[in-house]
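Ticket reopened. Same input as before:
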Amino acid sequence: MTKKDIEHYKKLLNSEKEELLKEMMESDEAARDILENDMTHVNDTVDEATSTITQTLLSTMNKNNQQKIMAIEAALRRISENNFGKCITCGEMITKERLETVPWATKCIKCKQKEEKKH
Ligand SMILES: [Zn+2]
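Engineering reply: fixed in the latest deploy. New output:
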């Protein structure tokens, strides 16, 4: 995976995260208060303050969005640790096609399917 690829997925992840935050602001008054009080940090995803805000927001959002934003945060962390795109189960690279639609994926399609069969 090239640096350019990483930048691309980072952009995807950040815009997805912004979408989620926006959606929350429209639907959740508590979240809106938090974000309005510290709006300057929201678009600055590398800023540590963002993580703090995100943490606070996590407690107010619905479970689906909660899981998604946590997955996005984890993916951004994997980017900074140079582990992005690797399957956490088998260690193989996750295909670009898959990362394009699910940039926060932690498992390759094979492991994902295996997991789903188990449930
Ligand atoms: Zn795998």
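Residues 87, 89-90, 92, 107-108, 110-111 surround zinc ion (CB under 6 Å). The longest helix spans residues 3-27. Please confirm and we'll close it.
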